[in-house]
Write a structure and sequence with these properties.
The chain has 521 residues and is an alpha/beta fold. The chain has 19 helices and 19 strands.
């Protein structure tokens, strides 16, 4: 069984960070639009599909608007999902440019590459390792001398654990995966299938040290600071530099670097491409390059501008990127199904009376579609509830017979019926009791409800229950989905209390929300 992973498209943009910006002098703003909604075309405004971490560029874009008269409005999305959208032609007429952390993966997909007519690198940030200072002392590492092989040996010896983002959703995770595979395989040119096969035993050992995963860099940093259970983070240098208490290492044997090219699209007019060129030129002026490096801690691409204080100017070897899409997808497949820790998730599903009809049909459709994304070795538990938990059905996607587990999940999904009241908090307590402790997995709870809690334990009861849990069990996050008439404030509190994240299926699709959560499992 090989689950789908890159064809998430527009639905995976749900629940990404949105931001508000102050009005400019002329009443326009540069900023971030509603996720997945670029807005109508307007003279003097560029609709830009951008990697999600570029939300931090708003102050720079406001200065660019003053410099050029062109307003840039970003729609934030995961880089790999944006490439998929581009490849399917869904950007035509909807966006005027794309601004991704890297076009390396884009170039592996001809149907996406042919829709880009020009690209201008704006800034750079290499993949790096942020290690707690105390761990650095314990390992006796000198930051300038550390290699990926040293990191792998520390993991194998049980001396280092870390977190990283999901390579199938986040370019920072994908670039990290490529960095590790290239370095540990000793590849001297573009990665091949043979290189990956050669490095697989060491890669498997390396990824045993991963104890924290995430669909976004922002949540990864927040989870790291909240939990304090890992020694290091693997991410872009610019992200790691913003986290207190980390020594940031660019491994001596090489890195993969994001260069953030602003790219024009073939489907746009000459006038629009001229606006893109004007914005790109403005971003590369010395004044804007200094602003970029000082405010975002990315590195300037203009040689006359020095990197911000604390960014080591010494160069590192650029590790080779996969030469074909098949190698890239094969590397992702190995990571998902063999290399990383397996996932263990309880889906706490509201099947109360209010779910009858269309809502229950939408839930069944979303869950049935999601089965194509479940990984080998993954344990999936369905826990439907009404006035109480109706059943607890667990299935493992066994690599020797994955179809059996997936078929059972689909059968249990098809058998769901709607009845009863809504016992949200009592059902969550049952989920924590079911999961217990001591599992060497990425463990989480997904809560989908279309209404407010009406019976059983209340919010205060659950708060007390959660705080009385052992420290290990308090590390299990709840990812609530806002759906139907559910109480956003209550669900947001659950996410904050447990260290999870709130996802929204009111403004978008339920299947999109479920798929977005996959990056956190």
């Amino acid at each position: 069984m090989r689950p789908r992973r890159l064809a998430l498209g527009l639905t995976a943009a749900l629940a990404l960070l949105t931001a508000c910006t102050p009005a400019a002098d002329d009443g326009t703003t540069a900023g971030v639009s509603t996720p997945g909604v670029p807005g109508p075309a307007a003279p003097g405004t560029l609709r830009v599909l951008a990697s999600s971490e570029l939300t931090d560029m708003e102050p720079v874009l406001e200065q660019v608007r003053k410099d050029t008269g062109v307003t840039v409005r970003l729609t934030a999305m995961g880089t790999l999902d944006a490439v998929d959208m581009l490849a399917k032609g869904k950007t035509d007429g909807q966006y005027d440019a794309v601004w991704l952390s890297s076009n390396d993966y884009l170039r592996l997909r001809p149907e996406a590459a042919e829709r880009v007519v020009s690209e201008t690198p704006v800034m750079t940030s290499p993949v790096a390792i942020g290690v707690q200072t105390a761990t650095m002392r314990k390992l006796g590492w000198q930051p300038a001398e550390v290699t990926w092989s040293q990191v792998e040996r520390a993991v194998a010896a049980g001396q280092l654990t870390y977190g990283m983002t999901d390579p199938a959703r986040s370019n920072s995770g994908f670039a990290t995966l490529v960095s590790v595979a290239s370095a540990l395989s000793g590849a001297q040119a573009a990665l091949t299938d043979a290189d990956v096969a050669e490095a697989r035993p060491r890669l498997k050992e390396f990824f045993q040290g991963q104890q924290l995963t995430s669909g976004s860099s922002g949540w990864l940093a927040a989870a790291y600071e909240r939990r304090g259970t890992v020694d290091a983070l693997l991410n872009y240098e610019s992200v790691l530099k913003g986290i207190d208490g980390l020594t940031v290492i660019r491994p001596r044997d090489g890195v993969v670097t994001a260069d953030y090219p602003l790219s024009s699209l073939t489907a746009t007019s000459a006038a629009t491409r001229e606006d893109v060129r004007a914005v790109a030129d403005a971003l590369r002026t010395p004044a804007r390059q200094r602003q970029i490096t000082e405010t975002t801690l990315r590195r300037p691409v203009v040689a006359s501008v020095a990197p911000a204080a604390g960014l080591d100017p010494e160069r590192r070897r650029e590790l080779p990127f996969p030469g074909t899409r098949s190698v890239a997808d094969g590397l992702l497949d190995s990571y998902e199904n063999e290399l990383r820790r397996p996932s263990r998730t309880v889906y706490v599903l509201d099947t109360s009376g209010s779910m009858k009809g269309d809502r229950l049909d939408r839930l069944k459709t979303a869950l049935t579609g999601l089965t194509g994304d479940f990984r080998e070795r993954e344990e999936v538990t369905l826990m439907p509830f009404g006035s109480e938990v109706k059943s607890v059905r667990s299935h493992v996607v066994d690599p020797s017979d994955p179809r059996r587990g997936l078929t059972a999940i689909r059968a249990d999904t098809d058998a769901l019926t709607a009845s009863g009241d809504t016992a949200v908090y009592t059902s969550l307590e049952k989920a924590y009791d079911h999961l217990g402790t001591g599992q060497d997995t990425f463990t989480s709870i997904v809560l989908m409800t279309d209404g407010e809690n009406t019976t059983g334990a209340d919010a205060a009861d659950f708060d007390g229950f959660y705080r009385a849990l052992s420290r290990d069990r308090r590390q299990i996050p709840v990812f609530p989905i806002v759906f139907g008439d559910s109480d956003r404030a209550e669900l947001a509190h659950l996410a904050e209390l447990t260290g999870g994240r709130l996802f929204d299926a009111q403004q978008g699709s339920l299947d999109g929300a479920f798929e977005e959560i996959r990056g956190y499992q």
